[in-house]
């Protein structure tokens, strides 16, 4: 679906999701990232009749109100998804704690951003896939049962 086909609320939801995925703990750095983002400059800001700087300011304000929760839930979702995928690749059962952590984090992100679950999960793919590569490398470097247990349990805090 093109941005031009979306309502302003849907565009804002997509912009919030993009901000959540791009956010760091440093608000100034996040603002620079958002102001420089092509998708904000060429799609979201024009669709909302805003300048990229104004939209970045709005998103930084949204992150100030929700950023701690958004970043924490993003990181939980990314970590749990990477570990879930590693379990599946290794053909071992995925611990329910991992599935629950992933699902709860995604639910909270959907509530925060307003983006539909399937769309948000698809957008987050590249983040968790990058983490999966790191987790896989950690596992392969150690390559023993103790490390597998540690990798699987890492997200559950066991």
Sequence-ordered SSE layout with sheet pairings:
Blueprint: H1 8-22, H2 27-36, H3 38-48, H4 52-89, H5 96-113, H6 117-142, H7 145-153
Q: Which descriptors apply to this entry?
A:
158 residues; mainly alpha; 80% helix
Backbone shape: elongated
The SSE order reads: HHHHHHH
Query: What fraction of residues sit in β-strands?
Result: under 5%
Which class best fits the helix and strand makeup? mainly alpha
State Rg. 17 Å
Counted beta strands: 0
Give the integer mean of the pLDDT values: 88
Helix content: over 70%
- Give a quick account of the main beta sheet: strands, pairing sense, barrel closure: none
Unreliable residue runs:
none
By DSSP (H or I, 4+ residues per run), the number of helices equals 7
Distance between the termini: 42 Å
Describe this structure in words.
With 158 residues, the protein is mainly α. It contains seven helices and no strands. The N and C termini lie far apart (42 Å).
Short structural summary:
This protein is an all-alpha fold.
């Amino acid at each position: 679906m093109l941005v031009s086909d979306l309502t302003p609320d849907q565009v804002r939801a997509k912009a919030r999701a993009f901000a959540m995925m791009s956010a760091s703990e440093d608000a100034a750095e996040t603002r620079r990232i958002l102001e420089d983002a092509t998708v904000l400059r060429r799609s979201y800001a024009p669709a909302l009749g805003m300048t990229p700087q104004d939209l970045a300011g709005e998103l930084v304000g949204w992150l100030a109100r929700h950023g701690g929760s958004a970043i924490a839930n993003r990181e939980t979702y990314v970590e749990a998804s990477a570990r879930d995928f590693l379990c599946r690749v290794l053909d071992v059962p995925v611990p329910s704690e991992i599935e629950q952590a992933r699902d709860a984090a995604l639910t909270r992100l959907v509530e925060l951003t307003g983006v539909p679950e399937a769309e948000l999960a698809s957008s987050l793919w590249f983040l968790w896939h990058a983490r999966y590569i790191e987790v896989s490398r950690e596992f392969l470097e150690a390559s023993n049962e103790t490390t597998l247990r540690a990798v699987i349990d890492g997200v559950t805090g066991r």
